Amino acid sequence: MEITADEGRLIASLFEAKHVRPKSVAELLLGWKKLVGEIEQGYRLTIYDYTNDLGTRDLLNYLSRNLPTELSRRIEAALEDADSRFRAATVEFPRGVLPRAATSDRWWYFRKPKIMVGDLKDDFLPLESSETDPQ
Amino acid sequence: MLRHVLRTALSVAIVLLTAQAATAQTDLVTYYHVDATGSVRMITDVNGQVMTRYDYLPFGQDWPDPPAVQDARRFAGKERDPATGFDYFGGRYYANGSGRFTTVDPILDVEQAQVDPQRWNRYAYVTNRPLRFTDPDGRVIFDWADFRRNVSITSNFGESGYGYFLPTVAAVAAIGSVAQDAFMFAAGGELAALRYAPKALPLVASAAGNLFARATQSGLQFADQGRLDEHVGEHLREFSEFGFKSGQDYIAGANRLVDAATRGVKGVESFVRSNGDLLVYKRTTNEFAAVTKLGTLKTYFRPEKEYEYWLEQIK
Protein backbone atom coordinates (compact mmCIF):
# COMPACT_ATOMS: atom_id res chain seq x y z
CA MET A 1 0.00 0.00 0.00
CA GLU A 2 1.51 3.27 -1.17
CA ILE A 3 1.70 6.15 1.30
CA THR A 4 2.78 9.64 0.27
CA ALA A 5 5.21 11.70 2.33
CA ASP A 6 2.41 13.98 3.53
CA GLU A 7 0.29 11.01 4.50
CA GLY A 8 3.27 9.53 6.32
CA ARG A 9 3.70 12.73 8.33
CA LEU A 10 -0.01 12.74 9.16
CA ILE A 11 0.21 9.15 10.35
CA ALA A 12 3.27 9.95 12.45
CA SER A 13 1.41 12.84 14.09
CA LEU A 14 -1.47 10.53 14.96
CA PHE A 15 0.91 8.14 16.70
CA GLU A 16 2.50 11.05 18.51
CA ALA A 17 -0.92 12.12 19.78
CA LYS A 18 -1.44 8.58 21.06
CA HIS A 19 2.00 8.50 22.73
CA VAL A 20 2.98 5.46 20.73
CA ARG A 21 6.17 4.99 18.74
CA PRO A 22 5.31 5.68 15.07
CA LYS A 23 4.84 2.69 12.81
CA SER A 24 4.17 2.57 9.10
CA VAL A 25 0.87 1.27 7.75
CA ALA A 26 2.81 -1.39 5.87
CA GLU A 27 4.48 -2.53 9.09
CA LEU A 28 1.13 -2.77 10.85
CA LEU A 29 -0.51 -4.60 7.97
CA LEU A 30 2.36 -7.05 7.92
CA GLY A 31 2.00 -7.62 11.66
CA TRP A 32 -1.74 -8.21 11.35
CA LYS A 33 -1.31 -10.67 8.49
CA LYS A 34 1.43 -12.46 10.41
CA LEU A 35 -0.87 -12.86 13.41
CA VAL A 36 -3.68 -14.17 11.23
CA GLY A 37 -1.30 -16.71 9.73
CA GLU A 38 -0.21 -17.84 13.19
CA ILE A 39 -3.83 -18.19 14.34
CA GLU A 40 -4.57 -20.30 11.27
CA GLN A 41 -1.69 -22.60 12.19
CA GLY A 42 -2.30 -22.52 15.95
CA TYR A 43 -1.11 -19.60 18.07
CA ARG A 44 1.31 -20.94 20.67
CA LEU A 45 2.29 -17.99 22.86
CA THR A 46 0.44 -16.61 25.90
CA ILE A 47 -2.74 -14.61 26.06
CA TYR A 48 -0.62 -11.58 26.89
CA ASP A 49 1.23 -11.98 23.60
CA TYR A 50 -2.04 -12.66 21.83
CA THR A 51 -3.78 -9.53 23.10
CA ASN A 52 -0.65 -7.55 22.31
CA ASP A 53 -0.69 -8.84 18.75
CA LEU A 54 -4.37 -7.95 18.46
CA GLY A 55 -3.25 -4.44 19.35
CA THR A 56 -1.84 -4.20 15.83
CA ARG A 57 -5.40 -4.33 14.56
CA ASP A 58 -6.32 -1.65 17.11
CA LEU A 59 -3.68 0.67 15.72
CA LEU A 60 -4.88 0.12 12.16
CA ASN A 61 -8.40 0.84 13.34
CA TYR A 62 -7.21 4.00 15.04
CA LEU A 63 -5.54 5.22 11.87
CA SER A 64 -8.52 4.31 9.76
CA ARG A 65 -10.84 6.32 11.98
CA ASN A 66 -8.64 9.38 12.12
CA LEU A 67 -7.19 9.68 8.65
CA PRO A 68 -8.90 11.41 5.73
CA THR A 69 -11.63 9.34 4.12
CA GLU A 70 -9.74 8.40 0.99
CA LEU A 71 -6.71 7.10 2.88
CA SER A 72 -8.96 5.40 5.41
CA ARG A 73 -10.71 3.52 2.60
CA ARG A 74 -7.40 2.34 1.24
CA ILE A 75 -6.45 0.95 4.64
CA GLU A 76 -9.83 -0.74 5.00
CA ALA A 77 -9.43 -2.27 1.58
CA ALA A 78 -5.99 -3.54 2.47
CA LEU A 79 -7.42 -5.10 5.61
CA GLU A 80 -10.29 -6.95 3.97
CA ASP A 81 -8.47 -10.12 3.09
CA ALA A 82 -6.70 -10.53 6.43
CA ASP A 83 -9.88 -9.66 8.34
CA SER A 84 -11.89 -12.30 6.53
CA ARG A 85 -9.14 -14.85 7.15
CA PHE A 86 -9.14 -13.88 10.84
CA ARG A 87 -12.91 -14.39 11.01
CA ALA A 88 -12.57 -17.75 9.36
CA ALA A 89 -9.86 -18.87 11.77
CA THR A 90 -11.74 -17.76 14.87
CA VAL A 91 -15.14 -18.19 16.51
CA GLU A 92 -17.24 -15.77 18.49
CA PHE A 93 -16.25 -15.29 22.12
CA PRO A 94 -18.77 -12.89 23.70
CA ARG A 95 -16.88 -12.60 26.96
CA GLY A 96 -13.96 -10.99 25.16
CA VAL A 97 -10.28 -11.76 25.59
CA LEU A 98 -9.36 -8.64 27.57
CA PRO A 99 -9.81 -8.47 31.36
CA ARG A 100 -12.59 -5.99 30.86
CA ALA A 101 -14.30 -6.16 27.54
CA ALA A 102 -13.17 -3.77 24.88
CA THR A 103 -15.75 -1.68 23.13
CA SER A 104 -17.74 -3.79 20.74
CA ASP A 105 -16.47 -1.96 17.66
CA ARG A 106 -13.16 -3.76 18.24
CA TRP A 107 -14.72 -7.03 17.24
CA TRP A 108 -11.40 -8.87 17.06
CA TYR A 109 -11.34 -8.99 20.87
CA PHE A 110 -14.61 -10.89 20.85
CA ARG A 111 -13.40 -13.87 18.90
CA LYS A 112 -11.09 -16.72 19.86
CA PRO A 113 -8.96 -18.99 17.71
CA LYS A 114 -10.54 -22.21 16.53
CA ILE A 115 -7.25 -24.02 16.99
CA MET A 116 -6.11 -23.83 20.59
CA VAL A 117 -2.59 -24.96 21.36
CA GLY A 118 0.34 -24.07 23.59
CA ASP A 119 0.10 -21.53 26.38
CA LEU A 120 -2.86 -19.79 24.78
CA LYS A 121 -4.95 -22.92 25.27
CA ASP A 122 -4.12 -22.98 28.99
CA ASP A 123 -4.71 -19.26 29.36
CA PHE A 124 -8.16 -19.53 27.82
CA LEU A 125 -9.35 -22.22 30.23
CA PRO A 126 -10.27 -19.85 33.08
CA LEU A 127 -11.79 -17.42 30.59
CA GLU A 128 -14.07 -20.08 29.25
CA SER A 129 -15.09 -21.27 32.70
CA SER A 130 -16.21 -17.84 33.82
CA GLU A 131 -18.22 -15.21 32.07
CA THR A 132 -17.36 -12.53 34.60
CA ASP A 133 -14.00 -13.29 36.09
CA PRO A 134 -11.24 -11.36 34.37
CA GLN A 135 -8.15 -13.12 33.09
CA MET B 1 20.65 -15.02 77.12
CA LEU B 2 17.10 -15.89 76.16
CA ARG B 3 16.21 -17.28 72.80
CA HIS B 4 12.74 -18.01 71.51
CA VAL B 5 12.61 -20.45 68.61
CA LEU B 6 9.63 -21.07 66.39
CA ARG B 7 9.15 -24.72 65.54
CA THR B 8 6.54 -25.82 63.07
CA ALA B 9 5.40 -28.77 61.05
CA LEU B 10 7.95 -27.86 58.41
CA SER B 11 10.70 -27.82 60.97
CA VAL B 12 11.61 -24.27 60.21
CA ALA B 13 13.33 -23.07 63.33
CA ILE B 14 14.52 -19.55 63.50
CA VAL B 15 15.92 -17.64 66.40
CA LEU B 16 13.40 -14.92 67.02
CA LEU B 17 14.93 -12.93 69.77
CA THR B 18 18.35 -12.78 71.20
CA ALA B 19 18.81 -10.77 74.34
CA GLN B 20 22.38 -9.81 75.02
CA ALA B 21 23.80 -11.09 78.28
CA ALA B 22 27.12 -11.03 79.94
CA THR B 23 27.62 -14.75 79.58
CA ALA B 24 26.35 -17.28 77.09
CA GLN B 25 26.54 -20.26 79.39
CA THR B 26 23.03 -19.69 80.73
CA ASP B 27 21.16 -19.65 77.40
CA LEU B 28 17.50 -20.53 77.76
CA VAL B 29 16.02 -21.59 74.44
CA THR B 30 12.28 -22.01 74.08
CA TYR B 31 10.22 -23.04 71.09
CA TYR B 32 6.95 -21.66 69.77
CA HIS B 33 4.55 -24.19 68.26
CA VAL B 34 1.90 -22.61 66.10
CA ASP B 35 -1.28 -23.79 64.42
CA ALA B 36 -2.41 -23.33 60.83
CA THR B 37 -3.33 -19.70 61.31
CA GLY B 38 -0.11 -18.83 63.08
CA SER B 39 -1.49 -18.75 66.62
CA VAL B 40 1.00 -19.85 69.26
CA ARG B 41 -0.44 -22.99 70.84
CA MET B 42 2.44 -24.25 72.91
CA ILE B 43 5.87 -23.27 74.16
CA THR B 44 8.45 -25.93 74.93
CA ASP B 45 12.00 -25.93 76.21
CA VAL B 46 15.02 -27.53 74.58
CA ASN B 47 14.08 -30.90 76.02
CA GLY B 48 10.63 -30.78 74.53
CA GLN B 49 9.01 -30.21 77.88
CA VAL B 50 5.85 -28.19 77.62
CA MET B 51 6.23 -24.88 79.40
CA THR B 52 2.78 -23.54 78.60
CA ARG B 53 -0.18 -24.16 76.34
CA TYR B 54 -2.61 -21.72 74.81
CA ASP B 55 -6.13 -22.37 73.60
CA TYR B 56 -8.35 -19.84 71.96
CA LEU B 57 -11.92 -19.31 70.98
CA PRO B 58 -12.24 -18.85 67.22
CA PHE B 59 -11.72 -15.11 67.38
CA GLY B 60 -8.67 -15.31 69.62
CA GLN B 61 -10.05 -14.96 73.10
CA ASP B 62 -8.29 -17.12 75.69
CA TRP B 63 -10.11 -20.32 76.50
CA PRO B 64 -10.93 -21.31 79.09
CA ASP B 65 -8.74 -18.90 81.07
CA PRO B 66 -5.57 -16.93 80.48
CA PRO B 67 -2.58 -19.23 80.97
CA ALA B 68 -0.32 -18.97 83.94
CA VAL B 69 2.75 -18.26 81.82
CA GLN B 70 2.11 -15.20 79.71
CA ASP B 71 4.03 -14.68 76.48
CA ALA B 72 3.59 -11.65 74.26
CA ARG B 73 3.13 -13.57 71.01
CA ARG B 74 -0.28 -15.16 70.93
CA PHE B 75 -3.29 -15.23 68.62
CA ALA B 76 -2.34 -15.29 64.89
CA GLY B 77 1.23 -14.86 66.06
CA LYS B 78 0.55 -11.29 67.09
CA GLU B 79 1.74 -9.61 70.25
CA ARG B 80 -0.93 -9.18 72.91
CA ASP B 81 -0.87 -5.87 74.74
CA PRO B 82 -0.87 -6.75 78.46
CA ALA B 83 -2.57 -3.49 79.40
CA THR B 84 -5.58 -3.69 77.07
CA GLY B 85 -5.57 -7.32 76.01
CA PHE B 86 -5.72 -6.16 72.39
CA ASP B 87 -3.65 -7.90 69.71
CA TYR B 88 -1.30 -5.67 67.76
CA PHE B 89 -1.69 -6.37 64.01
CA GLY B 90 0.58 -3.60 62.79
CA GLY B 91 -1.97 -1.43 61.05
CA ARG B 92 -4.56 -1.73 63.82
CA TYR B 93 -5.29 -3.19 67.21
CA TYR B 94 -7.66 -6.12 67.38
CA ALA B 95 -10.07 -6.69 70.27
CA ASN B 96 -10.22 -10.47 70.51
CA GLY B 97 -13.02 -10.31 73.07
CA SER B 98 -15.45 -8.82 70.58
CA GLY B 99 -13.81 -10.22 67.45
CA ARG B 100 -13.51 -6.77 65.94
CA PHE B 101 -10.72 -4.38 65.14
CA THR B 102 -10.72 -1.25 67.23
CA THR B 103 -10.44 1.00 64.18
CA VAL B 104 -11.68 0.87 60.64
CA ASP B 105 -9.84 -1.00 57.87
CA PRO B 106 -7.90 1.66 55.93
CA ILE B 107 -8.26 -0.38 52.73
CA LEU B 108 -11.57 -1.19 51.05
CA ASP B 109 -11.60 -3.00 47.73
CA VAL B 110 -15.02 -2.09 46.42
CA GLU B 111 -15.00 -4.69 43.67
CA GLN B 112 -14.27 -7.48 46.12
CA ALA B 113 -16.79 -6.15 48.60
CA GLN B 114 -19.49 -6.31 45.96
CA VAL B 115 -19.02 -10.04 45.58
CA ASP B 116 -18.12 -10.68 49.24
CA PRO B 117 -20.45 -8.40 51.24
CA GLN B 118 -18.81 -9.25 54.55
CA ARG B 119 -16.02 -6.94 53.47
CA TRP B 120 -18.29 -3.93 53.84
CA ASN B 121 -17.91 -4.33 57.60
CA ARG B 122 -14.54 -2.70 57.95
CA TYR B 123 -14.23 -3.48 61.65
CA ALA B 124 -14.74 -7.21 61.14
CA TYR B 125 -11.87 -9.63 61.53
CA VAL B 126 -11.16 -11.56 58.29
CA THR B 127 -14.83 -11.33 57.23
CA ASN B 128 -15.75 -13.33 60.34
CA ARG B 129 -13.97 -16.45 59.10
CA PRO B 130 -11.06 -16.72 61.55
CA LEU B 131 -10.48 -20.45 61.15
CA ARG B 132 -9.39 -20.12 57.54
CA PHE B 133 -8.20 -16.57 57.06
CA THR B 134 -5.61 -14.45 58.77
CA ASP B 135 -4.83 -10.78 58.56
CA PRO B 136 -1.11 -10.13 58.29
CA ASP B 137 -1.11 -6.47 59.20
CA GLY B 138 -4.67 -5.38 59.89
CA ARG B 139 -5.23 -4.26 56.33
CA VAL B 140 -5.65 -7.35 54.21
CA ILE B 141 -7.24 -10.77 54.38
CA PHE B 142 -4.97 -13.70 53.76
CA ASP B 143 -6.27 -17.12 52.79
CA TRP B 144 -3.94 -19.44 54.61
CA ALA B 145 -5.67 -22.57 53.32
CA ASP B 146 -5.24 -21.45 49.75
CA PHE B 147 -1.63 -20.57 50.41
CA ARG B 148 -0.88 -24.04 51.66
CA ARG B 149 -2.60 -25.57 48.66
CA ASN B 150 -0.88 -23.49 46.04
CA VAL B 151 2.29 -22.37 47.77
CA SER B 152 1.45 -18.89 46.66
CA ILE B 153 -0.17 -15.74 47.82
CA THR B 154 -3.85 -15.71 47.02
CA SER B 155 -5.57 -13.35 44.71
CA ASN B 156 -7.17 -11.76 47.73
CA PHE B 157 -3.78 -10.69 48.85
CA GLY B 158 -2.78 -9.35 45.48
CA GLU B 159 -5.97 -7.56 44.70
CA SER B 160 -6.03 -5.79 47.99
CA GLY B 161 -3.43 -3.37 46.78
CA TYR B 162 -1.04 -4.62 49.39
CA GLY B 163 0.69 -7.61 47.95
CA TYR B 164 1.22 -6.65 44.35
CA PHE B 165 4.94 -7.03 44.57
CA LEU B 166 4.87 -10.34 46.34
CA PRO B 167 2.87 -12.83 44.38
CA THR B 168 4.69 -16.04 45.04
CA VAL B 169 7.06 -17.76 47.32
CA ALA B 170 9.28 -18.46 44.35
CA ALA B 171 9.36 -14.85 43.29
CA VAL B 172 10.29 -13.75 46.75
CA ALA B 173 13.00 -16.34 46.80
CA ALA B 174 14.24 -15.15 43.46
CA ILE B 175 14.67 -11.61 44.59
CA GLY B 176 16.18 -12.67 47.86
CA SER B 177 15.54 -9.29 49.38
CA VAL B 178 12.97 -6.69 50.24
CA ALA B 179 9.65 -7.27 51.73
CA GLN B 180 9.84 -10.85 52.86
CA ASP B 181 8.98 -9.23 56.11
CA ALA B 182 5.43 -8.36 55.20
CA PHE B 183 5.02 -11.35 52.93
CA MET B 184 6.17 -14.00 55.30
CA PHE B 185 4.47 -12.65 58.31
CA ALA B 186 1.28 -12.73 56.36
CA ALA B 187 1.53 -16.45 56.03
CA GLY B 188 1.64 -17.04 59.74
CA GLY B 189 2.77 -20.46 60.93
CA GLU B 190 5.88 -21.77 59.35
CA LEU B 191 6.74 -18.69 57.42
CA ALA B 192 6.06 -16.17 60.11
CA ALA B 193 9.52 -16.72 61.44
CA LEU B 194 11.05 -15.15 58.39
CA ARG B 195 9.91 -11.78 59.46
CA TYR B 196 12.67 -11.95 61.98
CA ALA B 197 15.24 -13.67 59.85
CA PRO B 198 14.79 -12.70 56.18
CA LYS B 199 18.10 -14.24 55.21
CA ALA B 200 16.82 -17.61 56.35
CA LEU B 201 14.58 -17.79 53.31
CA PRO B 202 16.41 -20.76 51.74
CA LEU B 203 15.34 -22.82 54.74
CA VAL B 204 11.86 -22.77 53.40
CA ALA B 205 12.99 -23.94 49.99
CA SER B 206 12.94 -27.53 51.06
CA ALA B 207 9.36 -27.13 52.13
CA ALA B 208 8.21 -25.43 48.97
CA GLY B 209 9.95 -27.79 46.61
CA ASN B 210 12.52 -27.73 43.86
CA LEU B 211 10.88 -24.90 42.02
CA PHE B 212 11.55 -22.67 44.94
CA ALA B 213 15.18 -23.63 45.05
CA ARG B 214 15.58 -23.25 41.31
CA ALA B 215 14.19 -19.75 41.40
CA THR B 216 16.52 -18.89 44.23
CA GLN B 217 19.56 -20.10 42.39
CA SER B 218 19.05 -19.04 38.82
CA GLY B 219 16.37 -16.39 38.68
CA LEU B 220 13.08 -16.57 36.87
CA GLN B 221 13.03 -18.89 33.88
CA PHE B 222 10.57 -20.02 31.23
CA ALA B 223 8.88 -23.35 31.83
CA ASP B 224 11.12 -25.06 29.29
CA GLN B 225 13.62 -24.45 26.52
CA GLY B 226 10.95 -24.70 23.85
CA ARG B 227 8.97 -21.85 25.30
CA LEU B 228 12.09 -19.76 25.74
CA ASP B 229 13.01 -20.33 22.10
CA GLU B 230 9.53 -19.35 20.95
CA HIS B 231 9.56 -16.12 22.91
CA VAL B 232 13.10 -15.24 21.95
CA GLY B 233 12.22 -15.85 18.30
CA GLU B 234 9.17 -13.66 18.57
CA HIS B 235 10.44 -10.83 20.77
CA LEU B 236 14.23 -10.56 20.78
CA ARG B 237 14.31 -8.06 17.93
CA GLU B 238 12.04 -5.72 19.90
CA PHE B 239 14.93 -5.24 22.30
CA SER B 240 17.58 -4.43 19.71
CA GLU B 241 17.94 -0.90 21.03
CA PHE B 242 18.67 -2.43 24.45
CA GLY B 243 21.58 -4.30 22.91
CA PHE B 244 20.02 -7.72 23.49
CA LYS B 245 21.64 -10.31 21.25
CA SER B 246 20.75 -13.64 22.80
CA GLY B 247 18.25 -15.58 24.83
CA GLN B 248 20.43 -14.95 27.87
CA ASP B 249 20.14 -11.19 27.36
CA TYR B 250 16.39 -11.63 26.98
CA ILE B 251 16.04 -13.65 30.20
CA ALA B 252 18.29 -11.24 32.08
CA GLY B 253 16.17 -8.32 30.90
CA ALA B 254 12.99 -9.99 32.10
CA ASN B 255 14.57 -10.72 35.47
CA ARG B 256 15.76 -7.13 35.85
CA LEU B 257 12.25 -5.87 35.15
CA VAL B 258 10.56 -8.22 37.62
CA ASP B 259 13.26 -7.60 40.20
CA ALA B 260 12.71 -3.86 39.86
CA ALA B 261 9.01 -4.38 40.53
CA THR B 262 9.66 -6.49 43.59
CA ARG B 263 11.98 -3.81 44.93
CA GLY B 264 9.34 -1.17 44.33
CA VAL B 265 11.48 0.82 41.91
CA LYS B 266 9.70 4.00 40.94
CA GLY B 267 8.15 3.87 37.50
CA VAL B 268 7.82 0.09 37.44
CA GLU B 269 4.20 -0.93 37.85
CA SER B 270 2.95 -4.33 38.86
CA PHE B 271 -0.37 -6.08 39.13
CA VAL B 272 -1.55 -9.52 40.16
CA ARG B 273 -4.29 -11.11 38.10
CA SER B 274 -7.01 -13.16 39.70
CA ASN B 275 -5.32 -16.24 38.23
CA GLY B 276 -2.19 -15.36 40.20
CA ASP B 277 -0.08 -14.12 37.29
CA LEU B 278 2.15 -11.21 38.20
CA LEU B 279 2.23 -8.53 35.49
CA VAL B 280 4.99 -5.94 35.40
CA TYR B 281 5.32 -2.88 33.18
CA LYS B 282 7.88 -0.12 32.89
CA ARG B 283 6.52 2.78 30.94
CA THR B 284 9.75 4.63 30.21
CA THR B 285 11.20 1.64 28.36
CA ASN B 286 7.88 0.06 27.36
CA GLU B 287 8.75 -3.35 28.80
CA PHE B 288 6.12 -5.87 29.88
CA ALA B 289 6.57 -9.19 31.66
CA ALA B 290 4.22 -11.83 33.03
CA VAL B 291 5.17 -14.38 35.68
CA THR B 292 3.04 -17.26 36.94
CA LYS B 293 2.19 -17.59 40.61
CA LEU B 294 4.75 -20.36 40.81
CA GLY B 295 7.50 -18.08 39.61
CA THR B 296 7.78 -19.15 35.98
CA LEU B 297 8.26 -16.53 33.29
CA LYS B 298 5.36 -16.51 30.86
CA THR B 299 6.42 -13.75 28.52
CA TYR B 300 8.49 -10.60 28.14
CA PHE B 301 7.99 -8.10 25.34
CA ARG B 302 7.49 -4.47 24.36
CA PRO B 303 3.76 -3.85 23.77
CA GLU B 304 2.61 -2.51 20.44
CA LYS B 305 0.24 -0.02 22.04
CA GLU B 306 2.65 0.74 24.86
CA TYR B 307 0.96 2.18 27.97
CA GLU B 308 -2.53 1.68 26.58
CA TYR B 309 -1.82 -2.04 26.49
CA TRP B 310 -0.86 -1.99 30.16
CA LEU B 311 -4.00 -0.13 31.13
CA GLU B 312 -6.13 -2.67 29.31
CA GLN B 313 -4.43 -5.53 31.12
CA ILE B 314 -4.97 -4.15 34.60
CA LYS B 315 -8.51 -2.83 34.25
Percentage of residues in DSSP E strands of chain B: 15-25%
Structural category of chain B is alpha+beta
Mean pLDDT value of chain B: 71
* Biggest sheet architecture of chain B: 5 strands, mixed
Largest interface: A-B, 28 and 26 residues
Number of strands of chain B: 16
Radius of gyration of chain B: 22 Å
Q: How would you write the strand order of the largest sheet of chain A?
A: 1-2
- Strand percentage of chain A, roughly? under 5%
Instruction: Kindly report the oligomeric state of this protein.
Output: heterodimer
| Amount of helix of chain B | 25-40%
Distance between the termini of chain B: 53 Å
Largest sheet of chain A: 2 strands, antiparallel
**Total E-strand runs of chain A:** 2
Report helical residue fraction of chain A.
Answer: 55-70%
How far the N terminus sits from the C terminus of chain A, by CA atoms, comes to: 37 Å
Number of continuous helical runs of chain B: 11
Give unreliable regions of chain B as ranges.
7-24, 148-217
Radius of gyration of chain A: 16 Å
**What characteristic shape of chain B results from the CA principal axes?**
elongated
Which series of helices and strands of chain A comes N to C? HHHHEEH
